[in-house]
Specification:
about 280 residues, disordered N terminus, 4-stranded antiparallel β-sheet, single chain, alpha/beta, about 25% strand
Length: about 280
């Protein structure tokens, strides 16, 4: 169900990423994604929303070709990044082409320093040390805290610093697009706001496109221009971010609001509305 008649590509910008009717199966048996289609225009932030287990991470790993490590595969549909079908590309080739994923849970190299972690992001580059050092300074300009902690062992830094390190490491690959998985997970609200502000700055100043998988629907819709909501491996709703945030179904099922009031934990399972897309 779409809450608006438009699509994110309708703004006149070409799509940097397009998924068409994608299905993903694990262990040759378990169907996880069921005909997922979405579009990310060049230079846009698009939110991929839904509860834990809805299929958000699987969607990102299908794009970045990391499913094989978990005995999963795309069995149907197409994934096109920057004009090229990516199904046959290895993850490192896809990174060289400009698409990189920041994994859920940060996954920094705990035994390396912050700066060493950042430099691993440039591993696939072949443009010389001077360019890499210049980009390292650029990363530090976006993440001043990382400059202060550049010599610290990453495993001993805070969760927020590790998330900054993971995004900075992705930026070192000079991406056209970042697949960002649950950046708010386990972080204090103030740090979450700081992370999202940096994402918006990277998008507006560097032109990096983002597909943002997030359970924090309120925060994601605040920064994205368009959103898709997944449930049980299907896209059940999509639309402009403002329209989604104002939709009564989204308010009740994903923002914890009903009739303009925030619902209590006691009432969270007692919905006055029903999910019409499950009918």
């Amino acid at each position: 169900m779409s809450v608006t008649a438009s699509t994110p590509a309708a703004a006149g910008r070409p799509a940097i990423l397009a998924l068409n009717n994608v299905e993903v199966v694990y262990d040759h048996v378990i169907l996880v994604l069921k005909g997922v289609s979405l579009v990310v225009p060049q230079g846009a932030i698009v939110a991929l929303l839904g509860a834990n287990g809805a299929g958000k991470t699987t969607t990102l790993k299908g794009i970045s070709n990391l499913l094989r490590a978990e005995r999963g595969e795309v069995t149907k549909g197409s994934i096109v990044f920057d004009g090229t079908e990516v199904h046959a590309l290895s993850p490192n080739v896809l990174v060289r082409r400009g698409c990189i994923q920041v994994m859920e849970g940060r996954h920094c190299f705990a035994h390396l320093t912050v700066e060493e972690n950042l430099l691993t992001g440039a591993f696939t580059r072949r443009d010389g040390g001077a360019a890499i050092r210049a980009d390292l300074e650029r990363v530090y300009s976006y993440f001043p805290r990382l400059r202060e902690r550049r010599a610290a062992i990453a495993g001993y830094t805070s969760g927020g610093e590790q998330q900054m390190c993971a995004i900075g490491r992705a930026l070192m690959s000079r991406p056209k697009m970042i697949l960002l998985d649950e950046p708010s997970m386990g972080l204090a609200p103030q740090i979450v706001a700081e992370i999202f502000d940096i994402v918006r700055n990277l998008n507006s100043r560097e032109g990096v496109s983002f597909l943002l998988a997030e359970q924090n629907t309120h925060m994601a819709l605040k920064y994205a221009s368009y959103g898709y909501i997944l449930e049980n491996g299907r896209v059940v709703m999509d639309g402009e971010a403002g329209a989604l945030a104002a939709n009564e179904d989204v308010k009740e099922f994903y923002l914890g609001m009903a009739e303009g009031k925030r619902k209590s934990f006691r009432d969270v399972k007692h919905y006055k509305r029903r999910k019409r897309w499950l009918a």
